[in-house]
Amino acid sequence: MATTATRPEASALRLSSRTQHFVLPKQWASMRKAAALEREPGRKVIHLEKGDFQGQEFYPAPHIYEAAARAVHEGHVRYVPGPGMPELRDAIAEEMTRRGRPTVREEVLVTMGAKHALTQSLLTLVDQGDEVIFPNPGYPPDEFWITYAGGKVVYAPLVEPDFHFLLHDPEEEHDCFSDNTHNSHYYDVIGIRNVYLGAYQGLEGKTVKGPSVSDLVRAKSPEADARMRAALDTTVAKMTAIKERAESKERYDQMIGQGNAEGNAVVQAAIDALIAQAKELERVMAVLGLEKVQFEGSDSLDDPAKVSAGKKS
Description:
It is a single chain. The protein is mainly alpha-helical. The chain has a domain at 181-293. 50% of the residues lie in helices and 7% in strands. The chain has helices spanning 26-38, 62-73, 86-98, 114-125, 140-148, 170-175, 181-197, 213-220, 222-248, 252-255, 261-287, 299-302, 304-308, and strands spanning 131-136, 152-159, 164-165, 199-201, 207-209. The strands form two sheets. It has a three-stranded mixed beta sheet, covered by helices on one side. Strands 4-5 form a two-stranded antiparallel sheet. A hairpin with a 4-residue loop joins β2 (152-159) and β3 (164-165). α4 runs parallel beside α5, α7 runs antiparallel to α9 (222-248) and α9 runs antiparallel to α11 (261-287). The protein is elongated, with a radius of gyration of 29 Å. Mean pLDDT is 83; it is low at 1-5.
């Protein structure tokens, strides 16, 4: 009697937990689409979706491939030390020193390319839960290895026209280079309410109170004060919803993503509450007879040159 062995389905294979986050970058889908189009008769595709430059002039300098061919003929086809050839490491250290960063051979590791160097660096330095600033737009494989190492990708926009990081602006650094945007927004509105009410609750739970703007407004218009208090409470409630969602379901940048109707609605509700709060604040200003009021803006929005001039990375 013959028996037939059946191949187990791929879905039955047990994979390591490290593979649970594996999601192919969206950019790779465009590369597969371009490759498929290129196979169609009469199609010519100009590739802008990947960094593999395909121009005819993109060849190594003659002395490079001549040296490579000569090395093969001379028998340099064996293993080299793991960190790289000592002579090459010395040359790299010398070049780094010339560029202003004193370097010795022991600090240099030679890899097979930039991708391997970045991968090894990320796996060596990034620990579980670490936040890693990632340029947007950026190189998809780097994002992959950040999550593989257990880190969290924090997207940082690049500023046109030369696409540099916008650094040295506290607002940008706090809200863009961190996965705590929800906390930033939440505690902003908590702070506004604290100032109006003249009360602050410390981390230990103790509340400190004193004279407040609310006292001044209530003395002139109890109705305006009540409306302002209600608007502040509504804004805090809406921002609390954002904070709780970010800590339990999805990050803030996912909430504001295109096509995320539910997340968009949560953020929009907070924006609407802020707008309503601003209108009540204008009434409060009128009650107190405040005419010349200046609002602090954001350097990154109002005067980008002020924070980016001479501070590019």
